[in-house]
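Re: the 165-residue chain
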Amino acid sequence: MNNKERENEIRSLGDRNWYWVSKPVLNQYGRILRSSGIGVYNVLASYANSKSQTCFPTQQVMAERIGLSRRTVNRKVRILKDLKLVRVRKIRGRCIYFLLKPNTPNGIQAGDKRDTRNETPGNINNNKYIKINNKNNGANGFNNLKPLSQLIKRYEPKTPKNHRH
């Protein structure tokens, strides 16, 4: 396999560089949390112990991982608490975060259009979770990512220079 093929290799479900995010977090609460809240939740999920679903990153560490201010992280954590997606306990001056099971009406996920089948077609991961690859984050987390402003400029639709508004 050459380098070009390796770059485009399909991700593997077998490696251990994954963490779980429940689909309702995105489907039901995405519009409320917005991208920054989803980012904060993902950082918590990436740090969470797989059995106890607890973690204790500082808000400064979370802010640095996803390029937000500590104040924004604090505000999004409050929203996550209000939505009962996380519980926060202070122990000896540190915050311990508990990821909670999202409340879904009658076990139906938002966005599923009341699908009553036992399996979603084509979904080999039939456990109502999104699996996120954490492999390429490196030892320092997301430090190799470009700032969002650069990405926005890159994908913004270009208007002709002689076009008048």
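DSSP finds five helices and five strands in the chain.
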